[in-house]
UniProtKB/TrEMBL annotation:
Cofactor(s) it depends on: pyridoxal 5'-phosphate
Organism: Azospira inquinata
Family: Belongs to the class-V pyridoxal-phosphate-dependent aminotransferase family.
Pfam families membership: Aminotran_5 (PF00266)
Protein name: Cysteine desulfurase
InterPro entries attached to this UniProt entry: Aminotrans_V_dom, Aminotrans_V_PyrdxlP_BS, Cysteine_dSase
Superkingdom, taxonomy of origin: Bacteria
PROSITE patterns xref list: AA_TRANSFER_CLASS_5 (PS00595)
Length: 386
């Protein structure tokens, strides 16, 4: 079977062998419901709580602060809508480069009596200081700013933003940390002390299974559940827990923090080699002037369509993306790049490479060679069409 080199780890990651091994008993023999009182149920409950402790340890939280959910989208909706239901309507502040699963629920709140401030960003995708000051002057009730962007990889100084927000009416501050988990050290205790009340995490970005995620939540924050029922997960997420996926999430978190600095250096070296080659080919790399995740490069070539380039590279044996996997069905330019002031024509050409620990320097050089040949072919075809 044809298997392209996988360069799309920000969309999802391969299931780690150790994670699959941890999950298998709960897909076969250990089938108990964690809410049952017999031994089958108690075994399932122990597995869920062990995984909760593993997730908490990976981000410097206490296990009682970890609420399991089905995915990042549900988790972000749980925080924004759940918090809004418990606070007096006012201002909700989100950055203009958030994932759609933050932007869309915030906009929905805008139809329910809330006022929405979408923060401007600078040309590298960082929250604009002046606009953040304007937002804080409105004394918002809720703020959500992602820790690391899924398209550009740009890292926000969330701790500094949250510290500044403390004096603006004590808003509840949330951060989508899905892309940061496993790539950057995370310390919820330190972030919480700075004023961050909640983090969103997801399993399938770190070698875990799809279908498991978590909200790490300061227990002083009151949320209304999106799903009411049996009262699982501190009454915040009712429904029988997906035990196998949760066990896999815990195992993936334990793996993610092992040798993190070594993995970071490996990815950073690969990205530097990639971007040196991209520069030689004439690419524009977005967010290059800001701190970024070590594995992410988002770039474009003037006059070339990103979707076309992604398709050509796939046929050449490389799986890359044209932006967020969750919005890839849309042909519109990336809202992240438009927020950064990138011209729509250039934004439409954007391609994202997101590297993983299994990728090699040889694969990067092979990709650059394939990319160069593809660019020559597409440029030649464009010249003939003219």
């Amino acid at each position: 079977m044809f298997a392209p080199v996988y360069f799309d780890h920000n969309a999802t990651t391969p299931l780690a062998p150790e994670v699959l091994e941890a999950m298998l008993p709960y897909l076969r023999d250990q089938y108990g419901n964690p809410s049952s009182r017999h031994e089958y149920g108690r075994a399932a409950r122990r597995a869920v709580e062990e995984a909760r402790a593993q997730v908490a340890e990976a981000v410097g939280a206490h296990p009682t602060e970890v609420i399991f959910t089905s995915g990042g989208s549900e988790t972000n909706n749980l925080f924004l809508k759940g918090a809004a239901a418990c606070r007096r309507s006012g201002w909700v502040v989100v950055s203009g480069v958030e994932h759609p699963c933050v932007l869309e629920p915030a906009r929905q709140l805008g139809h329910q009596g809330w006022q929405v401030h979408e923060l401007a960003v600078d040309g590298d995708g960082r929250v604009a200081e002046a606009d953040f000051a304007i937002a804080l002057a409105r004394r918002p009730n809720l703020i959500s700013v992602m820790l690391a962007n899924n398209e550009t990889g740009v890292v926000q100084d969330v701790a500094a933003l949250a510290e500044r927000a403390k004096g603006a009416g004590s808003p509840w501050f949330h951060s989508d940390a899905i892309q940061a988990l496993g790539k950057l050290p995370l310390d919820f205790r330190a972030l919480n002390a700075a004023g961050v009340h909640a983090l969103t995490l997801s399993a399938h970005k770190i070698g875990g299974p799809k279908g498991a995620a978590a909200l790490v939540l300061d227990k002083r924050v009151e949320l209304a559940p999106l799903i009411a029922g049996g009262g699982q997960e501190r009454n915040l997420r009712s429904g029988t827990e997906n035990v196998a996926a949760i066990v896999g999430f815990g195992a993936a978190c334990a793996l993610s923090v092992q040798n993190m600095e070594q993995k970071r250096r490996h990815l950073q070296d690969l990205r530097q080699a990639l971007e040196a080659g991209l520069g030689a080919l004439g690419a524009t790399v977005f967010g290059a002037g800001a701190p970024r995740l070590p594995n992410t490069s988002f770039f474009a070539f003037p006059g070339l369509d990103g979707e076309t380039l992604v398709g050509q590279l796939d046929r050449a044996g490389f799986a890359v993306a044209s932006g967020s996997a969750c919005s890839s069905v849309q042909r519109e330019p990336s809202h992240v790049l438009l927020s950064m002031g990138v011209a729509p024509d250039l934004a439409k050409g954007a391609v994202r490479v997101s590297l993983g620990r299994e990728n090699t320097a040889a694969q990067v050089q092979e990709f650059l060679a394939a990319l160069g040949a593809t660019l020559q072919r597409l440029t030649h075809l464009a010249a003939i069409a003219v």
